[in-house]
Amino acid sequence: MSLVVVGSVAYDGVETPHGKVDRMLGGAATYISLAAGYFTSVGIVAVVGDDFAPEDVDLLASRNIDLSGLERVAGGRTFFWAGVYSADMNDRTTLRHRPQRVCRLRPETAAIVPFATVPVPGQHPAGAATKCARADETVSSSPAATP
Predict the structure, then answer these.
(1) 76 vs 41, 49, 50, 58, 136, CA distance in Å?
(2) pLDDT (tens digit, 9 = 90+) per residue, 102-147?
């Protein structure tokens, strides 16, 4: 059995009581794919911008993740979130949020993904809102971004 992961491939800026990183690879689709790749073949369906680093593409590819559904939008910027975690690491405050389309399924990708559950950016994973999208729909991080 194989798995197609539809969601965010992003960059995060994280500050904790233990340190700070201004930009690191993030996104639900990224980490689901990296973890699931230990157990099955995985493909990612996501959108990134021109700023998505070649070394991050190389990392995903090195784990045998199928990146044929990773769309790079010319002139676009990759989803970015930055925040600060509390001393006990139980809470966080968002400092910056640059939305990007979570998923714009192209016709060739839609054929392999009849339905997809996509986390809605800005929602904490503990209470994550999800949207079930038909393969021919566009799911975006804000209603204004939906064509």
Answers:
(1) 28, 4, 6, 20, 21
(2) 445 555 554 444 344 444 454 444 433 344 444 344 444 333 333 3
Its pTM stands at 0.70
Query: In the chain, at which residue ranges do the beta strands (DSSP E only) sit?
Result: 2-6, 10-16, 19-26, 41-49, 65-73, 80-85, 92-98, 103-104, 115-119, 130-134, 138-139
**Rounded Cα–Cα distance for residues 110 and 105 (Å):** 6
Dist. CA 5–CA 39, nearest whole Å: 14
Between CA 147 and CA 143 the distance in angstroms is: 9
Which of 134, 140, 138 is closest to 113 using CA atoms? Answer: 134
How far is the C-alpha of 73 from the C-alpha of 48, rounded, in Å? 6
Burial class (CB in 10 A: 0-12, 13-18, 19+), 47: buried
Query: 3-state class of 52 per DSSP?
Result: coil
- The phi and psi torsions of 39 (rounded to 5 degrees) equal -120, -25
